[in-house]
Amino acid sequence: MRKLEPKPFDEILSNYFNEKFGQKEESFWDREVGTYHASDFGKCLRKVYYEHELGKRESENSYPHFHLGNKIEDVVEYSLKNHYGRDLIKNSYRIELNFGDFRVVGQTDPVLVGVNGEIKKLFEVKSTKSLKFREEDGPAEHHVMQVHPYMAGLGLDSCTIVYVQKNDLKVLSYDVCFDKEKFARGKNRILVLHKGLTGGGPPKAEPFCPDWECDYCKYSNECPKGGD
Ligand code: SF4
């Protein structure tokens, strides 16, 4: 079989990809006790605790993954603007919920607004390797938890989670209604995290945390999985 020699172009592109997409975006993962992310509503609390205490960064291999996810969000936003009109789709909104001792902040994905600027609909975009589980099981629970602070912050009673399959851009979306009990549960979980970070120590490894989260967790060395 003929041996393929790397072309100069391969190196040019690889170098560009590494330079452009091989680094984290500044401040993306910065953590401060008392300020938590909307996505923490649905994460393993012990993992978030370690993010604060140990500050370990995502592996460099994961940065391109985030950049590609952002590009898919751009494609969805472009498509929504094409459908609704450029002026009616806002790129994102910042939300901030104050709960006394702590706050939850977040940056939404595209939002549909009315002609007077009123917020009408939130889209949360998730890129995925495969839609198989989402087709079988519906929206992932940690995504449903994550959109609750967004809905609360924007005053919406529903939103749409849009899954996009990376290899062919196949789309599957679900409408999710605001559920007071889920929101209260998420808030209480963050309170447990906050108490842990202000002297209580690591929260328990929870049954809430799915197996895949442990499999990909950067703290698996520090955490006796399923311990406590
Ligand atoms: S290994 Fe699992 S239980 Fe432990 S911190 Fe990571 S995600 Fe949580």
Main pleated-sheet profile: 5 strands, mixed
Q: Helical amount among residues, as a percent range?
A: 40-55%
Can you tell me the number of structural domains? 1
Instruction: Give the strand content.
Output: 15-25%
Distance N terminus to C terminus?
A: 56 Å
Mean pLDDT: 87
CATH topology: Lambda Exonuclease, Chain A
Shape: globular
Major sheet strand order: 2-5-6-7-8
Low-confidence stretches: none
Number of strands: 8
Structural class: alpha/beta
Secondary structure tally, helices: 7
Q: Bound compounds, please?
A: iron/sulfur cluster
Order of helices and strands: HEHHEEEEEHHEEHH
Rg estimate, integer Å: 19 Å
What is the CATH top level name?
Answer: Alpha Beta
Specify the CATH architecture.
Alpha-Beta Complex
Give your account of this protein's structure.
With 228 residues, this protein is an alpha/beta fold. It has a single domain, classed as Lambda Exonuclease, Chain A, CATH 3.90.320. Helix content is 41%, strand content 19%. It has 7 helices and 8 strands; from the N terminus they run H-E-H-H-E-E-E-E-E-H-H-E-E-H-H. The chain has a 5-stranded mixed beta sheet. A hairpin with a 5-residue loop joins strand 5 and strand 6. Helix 2 runs parallel beside helix 6. It starts with 7 loop residues before the first helix and ends in a 13-residue tail after the last helix. The mean pLDDT is 87. The structure holds iron/sulfur cluster.
